[in-house]
Specification:
776 residues; alpha+beta; Acyl-CoA Binding Protein; Dbl Homology Domain, Chain A; seven-stranded antiparallel beta sheet; 44% helix; globular
């Protein structure tokens, strides 16, 4: 077991070894982060090992090397990120790896299972700031070192004694139960090390051995504190260490410059220097200088009792190890620290603390977030900085005194800031996602269907003959967009960069070609209907579709993927509207963008009605799954309008009900006591001939109104006036549409079961006008 200071002192100067540690943590599952962050980290590791992106080489390399558990699910995302690292050297990739890792919320935190006083399962962790409490991977509480008075453990109970608040003398003690004494003691030791390393100025002095008997644990932190390490380096005691970087044998020369290609036979030796400054980045040391002493002891009445350890502001310590520092002593210590802090802040700053656990402006959430489109995070790695070693981090190099405006200028040169560029990046990112959605049909569904002969040949031909042309077209479309972005960023053909800072011409060309696919897009509504008819007529096909939707690759209902092509057209239209709004009329790309917008608007207008019908059809099918005993919900001509919660007045008072409004009927339901949480239908109100009456004065209930149909009347109440107005407006609109159709009868009404069950069933709510009379 190495102390914290040894690990810190060993890793900070050697960034390459630090990168290897991050790689090991990923492989062993100790670095907790979301899939996007994990894929981005692995993409930089792959870039440092094999060089620039190549589809074939990437597939082979990822198949042979496992960087993270369950890597197969992330391979596409890893390759997508790796494609953006073209031109990065191994040194730059290592630096980017550490930049991303140190911004992870869970970086450096090991979770220890425990339970609170109520028996709830939680996880405890310790960081430079204090002790953290997690529920799963979500942080629910944090105890800063400045608020903790004492840490101890007794058998398998871990105790945290907090300092009293300023306005209260009450001292709170938190208790956590761990699996056994050994685990509890191990976590207590980790807390002792972290507190001593990050909070104390010097190594705790050894406690004199007791003469008569021992009590508590004799463990103490041994090693230099963070303050001592930084002072040692600042005074010049740390010499630059020469080391050789061992490149991977399979590293490609594609990402190396011609100059470096000549030196492939000899790997240059490089040095690392570590400098420290007391500027704004030195957050950890400042927190050390402002805190109070923490008393750490152990209370264990078990047979393993050993001498206790206690850190006091002065040397006077009792034999029993329980003497507490007085408030006067603590105030004196704080005063001395504040004077030391002021004297240190007067010294000139020569750098910043690399690897310090504070978060910078750009942080990556380990629990979620959007995908990172740009994988290069550091603007400090400039190709013009020829004096610095490529393996030395700008945060560790004393020659990187670059002004903020110079860094921003370098970043602007490397990454375009035009809004049109980010719109083009959005097109590429969403096109990749759309292509994967098409592959669910053209690749995964087709391969699964070929193994199980359960789908009619006519249906197979109808589906795949209309989706494969779309997949082929959008594959080529994505390649063109990625090539344009590469030219835009100057990753290749830099002399032609000025001619390719636009995306409208690419969109216009492909949208015009997309018009030829309209005949296939019109078939999608037919595909949806035929697939549903096939499921109705074949239980085997129904079971097949249900099993396919349960697979990981099909993360949504199958019908949703059939709707994707029409939804994609709407997205193209929105993108082109934003692009035209961004460009001034005299811009070189404005004419092509405007023409592309006109073309895609024409396609959307032609297919809009078909898309609305398909969406309504899918909504009815999803509602059918959630409503009990509603087999004939999906009928020709029925349209879903809205759903929402209203309170229904009955003999039992106001009861909350979920209402579903269609263009011919209104259903009110409640959540049933079933494993699937389906809705139980309590009543059906045909809209033909229905009347709406305001009933606030009659019933004395705010925001209530009466719905009177031909055979039944109910009184409902909304939560507020706005909600009531929306419901009455939508219901009245549906009533008017029904009367205009002049069709009081429908398949739904004729086949509906009666509103109430047998009187012998005690579970049925007799929700009718009789209840209203009883309530009156």
């Amino acid at each position: 077991h190495k102390s914290v200071s040894n690990i810190f002192f060993f890793m900070c100067p050697f960034r390459y070894l630090f990168a290897l540690q991050v790689k090991q943590d990923l492989a062993q599952g100790r670095l907790t982060c979301n899939d996007t962050s994990a894929a981005l980290l692995i993409s930089h590791i792959v870039q440092s090992e094999i060089g620039d992106f190549d589809d074939t080489i990437d597939h082979e390399h990822l198949a042979k090397n496992k960087y993270i558990p369950q890597q197969e699910a992330l391979e596409d995302k890893i390759m997508e990120f790796h494609h953006n690292h073209i031109g990065q050297t191994p040194a730059e990739s290592d630096f980017q790896l550490l930049e991303i890792a140190r911004r992870l919320e869970m970086y450096g935190i090991r979770l220890h299972p425990a339970k609170d006083r109520e028996g709830t399962k939680i996880n405890l962790g310790v960081a430079h700031t204090g002790i953290l409490v997690f529920q799963g991977y979500t942080k629910i509480n944090a105890f800063n070192w400045s608020k903790v008075r004492k840490l101890s453990f007794k058998r398998k109970r871990f105790l945290i004694k907090l300092r009293p608040d300023v306005n209260s003398n009450f001292q709170d003690t938190l208790e956590f139960l761990m699996a056994n004494r050994d685990l509890c003691k191990a976590f207590w030791k980790i807390c002792v090390e972290h507190h001593a390393f990050f909070r104390l100025f010097e190594e705790p002095k050894p406690k004199p051995k007791p003469v008569l008997f021992t009590r508590g644990s004799s463990f103490r932190f041994s090693g230099r504190t963070q303050k001592q390490v930084l002072d040692y380096v600042k005074e010049g005691g740390h010499k630059k260490v020469q080391f050789e970087r061992k490149h991977s044998k399979i590293h490609s020369v594609r990402s190396l410059t011609p100059k470096s290609t000549e030196q492939l036979s000899v790997v240059p030796k490089q040095s690392c220097s570590f400098t420290y400054g007391d500027g704004a980045d030195s957050l950890v040391v400042q927190s050390c200088q402002q805190g109070k002493e923490l008393n750490i002891s152990v209370e264990d009445g078990g047979p393993h009792a050993t001498p206790s350890l206690k850190k006091s502001p002065k040397e006077g310590q009792g034999i029993d190890g329980t003497t507490m520092a007085t408030m006067e002593e603590e105030e004196e210590v704080v005063k001395d620290r504040s004077q030391l802090s002021r004297s240190q802040r007067q010294q000139p700053s020569t750098g910043s603390l690399a690897g310090s656990p504070h978060l910078s402006e750009l942080s990556i959430n380990s629990q979620g977030g959007p995908a990172i489109a740009n994988a290069t995070l550091s603007p400090n790695l400039s190709p013009d900085n020829r004096h610095a070693s490529p393996l030395i981090s700008p945060l560790l190099n004393d020659q990187t005194g670059v002004r903020a405006d110079d860094e921003e200028e370098v970043r602007r040169k490397r990454f375009p800031t035009d809004k049109a560029y980010f719109i083009a990046k959005e097109v590429a990112t969403t096109e990749r996602t759309y292509l994967k959605d098409l592959e669910v049909i053209t690749l995964w569904l087709q391969s699964t269907v070929s193994k199980d002969d359960c789908m009619p040949e006519a249906l197979k031909s109808l589906i795949f003959s209309n989706f494969e042309p779309l997949h082929k077209f959008h594959t080529n479309f994505l390649k063109e967009v990625e090539q344009r972005i590469a030219l835009w960023e100057g990753r290749s053909n830099a002399h032609l960069k000025g001619d390719f800072q636009k995306i409208g011409d690419v969109m216009l060309k492909n949208i015009q070609s997309m018009k030829q696919l309209t005949v296939h897009l019109r078939k999608h509504s037919e595909i949806l209907l035929e697939l549903e008819n096939g499921i109705k007529n074949s239980r085997r096909l129904e079971a097949f579709c249900r099993d396919f939707e349960m697979q990981k690759v099909c993360y949504l209902p199958l019908n949703i993927f059939l709707l994707r092509p029409l939804h994609r057209l709407m997205h193209y239209k929105q993108i082109m509207e934003r692009l035209c709004k961004h460009y001034p009329p005299n811009h070189g790309d404005f004419r092509d963008s405007r023409a592309a917008l006109a073309e895609i608007s024409e396609m959307v207008a032609q297919l809009h009605s078909s898309m609305l019908k398909m969406e309504n059809f899918q909504k009815l099918h999803e509602l059918k799954k959630d409503l009990i005993a509603m087999d004939n919900l999906v009928t020709p001509g029925r349209e879903f309008i809205r759903l929402g919660s209203l309170s229904k007045l009955s003999g039992k008072g106001l009861q909350q009900r979920m209402f579903f409004l269609f263009n011919d009927v209104l259903l009110y339901t409640s959540r049933g006591l079933t494993a699937s949480n389906q809705f139980k239908v309590h009543g059906r109100l045909p809209l033909y001939g229905m009347m709406i009456e305001d009933s606030e004065e009659e019933w004395g209930v705010p925001h209530c109104f009466t719905l009177r149909s031909q055979h039944q009347s109910i009184v409902v109440a909304a939560s507020n006036r706005i909600e009531m107005d929306k419901w009455t407006e939508d219901i009245q609109m549906a009533i008017d549409l029904t009367e205009n159709c002049n069709d009081p009868a429908s398949e739904f009404h004729g086949n509906s079961p009666p509103d109430t069950k047998s009187p012998e069933d005690p579970t049925v709510d007799q929700e009718s006008e009789d209840d209203l009379n009883a309530s009156r």
